[in-house]
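Posting this for the archive.
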Amino acid sequence: MYRALRIARLCSLIVTIAIITMVIASPTQLRSDYQTAFAQSTTIETSADMHDDKFFGEAVLQVLITDTTATSEGTIETLTVSIDGKSDAGTSSTQSVTVPETSKSTGVFELFLVHIDATAVDPSDLDPFNSAGVMNDGTCIVDCAPVVTFGPGGDLDISADIYQDVRFEITAHDVHKVINYQETAAKVSLDRETYGVNSFVYTSIQDQDANLNPFERDEFVVNSATPPNEDLFGLEGGEFVSGDITFQETGDNTAVFKGKYQLGTSIDPVSESLVITLHEKANYDADLAVPENDSNNTDEISFTIGSNDGSIGGPGGQQAVTEDGRISTGRNVYAIGERIEVNVADTDANINPDFIDSVHVGVSSSSDQLMLLARETGQNTGVFEADFLASSNKTALPTSDQKAAIGTNQVTDTLIINYTDQRPADYAVKVAAGQDPSKVFTTRVDVHALKTGSDMTSFTTPSLKDANGKFLSEVTVGSQAIVSTTITNKNSDQSQPFVALVEFRDHKGVTVYLAWQSGTLDPNSNATIGLAWNPDAPGNYTVRIFAISALSGNEILSDVVSSQVVVASG
């Protein structure tokens, strides 16, 4: 979710700049209006925002700063960021960092913060927004995202060894953000309270301390007989059988790790009632005896073996009924080059009602495959969303886009989208038989090459209406008018994505207003376009409307249609 939200914000800003640059002959005349319309406060976001503003140990913290005063087009601007660090031992240090823009005209600046002794995540393992890369990643040369280190001998030279608490204050302009390098308490949970004699026991650990790389699914291995994690769990009423159990993060930056045991195979019960005790760890690659794992904190969960109804543990200890997941897309047909939205509705995948969960969705074409992370739309919705790009030339896309894109046949293709439901409706039958209960649900969408040309769509002559839909013969300065027109898809065999551009020019031919509206038309269908205009000077104006294929391209889809407008003094 974190990355998806950031991508949406970046795309919105980049797209608007692209339109103005492409269409307006004199873009400087609208720059002040543009800045006013899109102005917002400088913001600081981090990968720890959804984790009580904490990170710890060998974890890397991502910091993203949005600065709307960075408006110089065509250049990589820089932003000075101040980082104050104060260790738990009382020493402090301040570092001023020059941070480059992630790419031209984004207004977004990225840096990373990590302890100088941390080695778990290499700069090359990070997936930055910065198109140039990360400092010391082996490929980036200039305009790299900085990596700021802290600790003895670090950029922030403070007396704080790895796994010792530090408080940071990050400042950009007059905006401040406080982040704590501090251990979080681990929690253990199970998918149910009662299991059959050979059922699978899905075990989850929620712990930000093990969330090292915010860009990938971290993992650690537990083996009851070998270091370092033979001391992670205690089991009353049975014993763990030797063997590796991988706990993998449920998604990028979720800090929830899930592993799967099986009764009679990896757990040998000697009682009908069992209790799993989780021992606090800050470093999952070291035994409890090491200094960083000196906490005596524990968390425990109990379960029983016996009559199993196949239900899963719900909020407040209630039992929640399992259901089949439902996977869908916005449409059945898309043009190549469009983003495809995927929706998964699965109430029992809402594992933690106080946390935004995630699920994985697989996508395959005739020539490519993609694993997509779908994030829950809220803390307790059970609805998950993601989107990806269907591309005819995936290798030509920027690296950051390729991770959310799938290559397709250049003319037409069928995409198969699948979701593996870990707890489908027949969960009870499967677990009672000791079988893996997971089930795959699939949907398909067709994609085709986009037809372009001025004869793909057409517009009616634009007219002006008031807020009540009444036609206006003239407009008064200071009053609002709605520019209205109808766009028609002239294709009989395919849907048509479009961007309708509305431009007002004064009597000198200077553009004084520019707006756009996007959508997708079904074959042989039409849609009404309506955009508000508030003229600030009297005179004679020309309103021009035409369509292009997408904000990122300039393929013309219609002829220009225009009409004359008279604006009277107020």
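The longest strand covers residues 511-521. Residues 1-40 have pLDDT under 50 and may be disordered.
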